[in-house]
Give the backbone structure.
Amino acid sequence: MKKIALFYGTYTGITGIVAEKIVKELGEENVDLYNISKDGERMNDYDMLIIGTSTWSIGELQEDWDAFMPKLQEMDFNGKTVALFGTGDQVGYPDTFLDGMGMLYETFQYRGAKFVGFWPTSGYDFTSPLPLLDHDHFVGLAIDEDNQPELTDERVHKWCTMIKPAFGLK
Ligand SMILES: Cc1cc2nc3c(=O)[nH]c(=O)nc-3n(C[C@H](O)[C@H](O)[C@H](O)COP(=O)(O)O)c2cc1C
């Protein structure tokens, strides 16, 4: 079994595509990839987690994550390292941009997780407070494939370089 697991939830596939980019950056030999719609319980088997979600219905968590919430709320993440990423649309939904990522942050934080991979807010234009760690940082990587697809690869690359040491990778 590999040491890192990436769990993602997607509706139209965008978060899954970003998840695959992250796995490629970190090395396929290092990361097990799971869709939260199927294998959520496997989260208990790992100490290093990457967690990705989109946001739907104006501020709602992606539906597979939503369905998994009751189980997530019973898990213990003390001693576990978690890096979050979210996909959303800052132009169409500025007030709820990446709210899903913010919701997962709250849940994992309450259950004891230690976070890595906070991401600067410069270069984005939105008003949602939920995905923010502080004024200058998101709680995780922010991806907007709807409006800034040309920036995705570079953002993923930089973020992966940033989280590698915390996940024991060079
Ligand atoms: C009806 C609808 C509602 C949406 N609501 C939000 C939202 O509240 N916040 C946000 O950041 N993005 C919102 N989005 C954009 C999606 O989250 C974005 O396209 C995302 O990348 C989709 O990822 P997925 O295909 O992995 O689910 C919405 C899109 C649609 C069509």
Notes: The chain has a mean pLDDT of 97. The chain has five helices and ten strands. Strands lie at 4-8, 31-35, 48-56, 60-61, 81-87, 114-116, 119-120, 132-134, 137-138, 141-143.
